[in-house]
Design goal:
Blueprint (H helix, E strand, L loop, with lengths): L4 E4 L3 E4 L3 E2 L15 H10 L7 E3 L8 H10 L6 E6 L1 E3 L7 E3 L3 H15 L6 E4 L9 H14 L5 E4 L3 H8 L6 E5 L8 H9 L3 E5 L12 H14 L3 H12 L12 H8 L8 H8 L2 E2 L4 E2 L2
Parallel strand pairs: 3-4, 4-5, 5-8, 8-9, 9-10, 10-11
Antiparallel strand pairs: 1-2, 6-7, 12-13
Helix pairs in contact: 1-2, 3-4, 5-6, 7-8
Amino acid sequence: MTSRTLTIGSSHTVTRIGFGAMQLTGEQVWGPYPDHAGGLALLRALREEGVDFIDTADVYGPHHNETLIREALHPYPELTIASKGGFVRGGFDYDTLGWVGNPIYLRQSAVMSARRLGLDSLPLYYLHNGYATDAPFEDQVGALRDLRDEGLIQNIGLSNVTAEQYAIAREIAPIAATTAMYNAANRTGGALMRATLADGGVFSPWWPMSLRKSIDDATPIYAVLDPIAAEHGITTGQLALAWLLHLDDRILPIPGTTSRAHLRENMAALDVVLGKDEVTAISALVSEAAGEATH
């Protein structure tokens, strides 16, 4: 049986399946979620379904996701909220994506996320990526370190960085958590995950249940997953989550959904017990070094 909880930093103990809130926005993660009442209802159901960790970002909307979370859940009893800064959008199309690492901008981003969420202090705040070139990476991490020292951030996280950048950041400030793509069909964040777990930090895979989005032909993946899922009487999505939970007790998947039924199904993965051979079979589907399917 895998552990059901983990602790981020020294004080935030959470259930090991969180909620990625990105889908509660408009089309292409732009604008407000069109079913405002439905979004509020889903967020307010999280605690009833066992969720106590929510992952958001200022770029989701932008901003609308954070304000929806506040309207639904503030003052967040028994909830831990994580947000991110440094990723920017200039419009509806994804080709308007960009990255800003200017320390003054990152400071403003954290302050504004805290304001939109109605928090005096952010439990976990991620640098959203390691792509920005307008400021040295060391200065970007240093800006979050300063905000932690001032109390606006309680724990520093890194999102979508390389293992090499993670090592640099660890020399500047303690890193409580990292997040990157990692799932049964795509191991892009594998090096970052291994470095984080080796240091005792939390790794939070995004798109944890993605299969067909990760590779062009997922048939070989399903050829392995389907029989295992059938043996346990679960869906392949639940199996993908359970596999992640079995890899290490400091892995915190953050699946997203707009359906309460799907949310309940996701949380049921906490109760799935896999054999070592089953975990090994799923792990062997993808080359950890290349992050690509081996079949």
